[in-house]
Amino acid sequence: MTYKTRFQYLLDKARDIAQAQSPQNPKLPPLFFFTDPKRTPHPEDIAIHMPAGCGIVYRHFGEGHASQRARLLRKIARDNGLTLLIGEDDTLALEIEADGVHLRQASIDRAAGLHAARPSLILTAACHDAETLRALDTDSGLSAIFISPVFASHSPSAQGVVPLGVNGAREMTELSSLPVYGLGGIGCDNILSLKGSGLAGIGAVDAFKL
């Protein structure tokens, strides 16, 4: 399976998952590639293989050439019909005219102010517990929430954490008035199991590795 074939398969199945949810936000792709400086050190090489209609969350975690890489990803996104969010760094997102910002759970409170200042930005955030998810509503400024880990994941934040599984993901979606995406351990081998889970889409890291 070529990279493009694999990525198209993931997008097709993510669309199937998203279509079960109504209404859908047309600004939100059903599939997001989450970058990671260690696991995907050259995200631009992955982005050029991604089919139109996907999203990228560029998480630089302070890497040295973040601005240059973000600009390159912005160009690739514009040329190929992709949506680009910048992880946590709204200053960089505005500087390169990205489509939005993805926030850590600890930064969720920033969403309302960002939305008020820049209502056109797509704002998403990580959410790791039911209490936080239940407290969020459509006034939070967020467009969507990413819950994780759905399945066992190589992410450092997922180590020692019991995966939600399909049933756990479904329970989390029932708590939220916002679209909920799944993240963590999702790939070609298990994405089909998420149809009917209530998720509005998925995010992945390792599923996009070259």
Structural description of this entry:
An 8-stranded parallel beta barrel has the order 1-2-3-4-5-6-7-8, surrounded by 5 helices. It is built from 7 helices and 8 strands. It is an alpha/beta fold. The protein starts with a helix and ends in a 6-residue tail after the last strand. The radius of gyration is 16 Å and the shape is globular. The model has no long low-confidence stretch (mean pLDDT 94). It is 32% helix and 17% strand. Helix 6 links the parallel strand 5 and strand 6. It has one domain: Alpha-Beta Barrel (TIM Barrel), CATH 3.20.20.
Contiguous helical run count: 7
The helix/strand order is HEHEHEHEHEHEHEE
Question: Any low-confidence stretches, pLDDT <50, length ≥5?
Answer: none
Fold-level CATH name? TIM Barrel
> How much helical structure, as a percent, in the residues?
25-40%
Structurally, the number of domains stands at 1
Main beta-sheet strand count, sense and barrel state: 8 strands, parallel, barrel
Briefly, what is this?
The protein has a single domain (3-208), classed as Aldolase class I (TIM Barrel, Alpha-Beta Barrel), CATH 3.20.20.70. The chain contains 7 helices and 8 strands.
Defining traits:
210 residues, alpha/beta, TIM Barrel, 7 helices, 8 strands, 32% helix
Give the helix/strand layout:
Layout: H1 3-19, E1 31-34, H2 43-47, E2 55-58, H3 66-80, E3 83-87, H4 90-96, E4 100-103, H5 111-117, E5 122-127, H6 130-135, E6 144-147, H7 165-175, E7 180-183, E8 201-204
Parallel strand pairs: 1-2, 1-8, 2-3, 3-4, 4-5, 5-6, 6-7, 7-8
